[in-house]
Amino acid sequence: MTDTWLIVGLGNPGPEYSGNRHNVGQMVLDELAGRIGGKFTSHKGARAVVLEGRLGIGGPRVVLAKPLTYMNVSGGPTSSLAKYYGIAPDHVIAVHDEIDIPFNSIKLKLGGGEGGHNGLRDISKALATKDYLRVRVGVGRPPGRMDAADFVLRDFGTAEKKELPFLLDEAADAVEALVRDGLLDAQQRFHPAKA
């Protein structure tokens, strides 16, 4: 197995979904791609676009990946890429939207449940383990009685859009800290202190 990290940004394909809360994982990968200074290209062995590079000067080697499948079938591309690059599940990071975290917050974890997130459920099934890393980007809870599925398939609100660049920047920093410094150090940096 290699020291390379596979970082998968979850979302749905196509321009009609690109601004949705559900696609915040792919937005974070676009931010990381800008830092690496490259463009995503089609991967012949998986239904995904990828960008290979290093995070920072002399930093860890990473493969950024955006599946071209719908969110709830993200497992196939993730598993195919992990096999292709020889990457173990403990070096796979899924970056995804999380309604159980307030907007503008980020949480990092290894393994655990999927919290009703079908994209994560499919990745767990395809990798045959839940023991991969997650960068959970808070998108807030649906207002009133709105269905969670409807909520995540909507674009961010006007006030949120003003804050979104800062959230994406912080989430990208969290991914970098995770691969460079490990989970515990990254959690201490990005999880808010309990009052």
UniProtKB/TrEMBL annotation:
The record marks N12 as: Discriminates between blocked and unblocked aminoacyl-tRNA. Transmembrane segments: none annotated. Hydrolyzes ribosome-free peptidyl-tRNAs (with 1 or more amino acids incorporated), which drop off the ribosome during protein synthesis, or as a result of ribosome stalling. Catalyzes the release of premature peptidyl moieties from peptidyl-tRNA molecules trapped in stalled 50S ribosomal subunits, and thus maintains levels of free tRNAs and 50S ribosomes. GO terms for molecular function: hydrolase activity. Its EC number is 3.1.1.29. The active site is at H22 (proton acceptor). This is Peptidyl-tRNA hydrolase. Belongs to the PTH family. The lineage of its organism: Bacteria, Bacillati, Actinomycetota, Actinomycetes, Micrococcales.
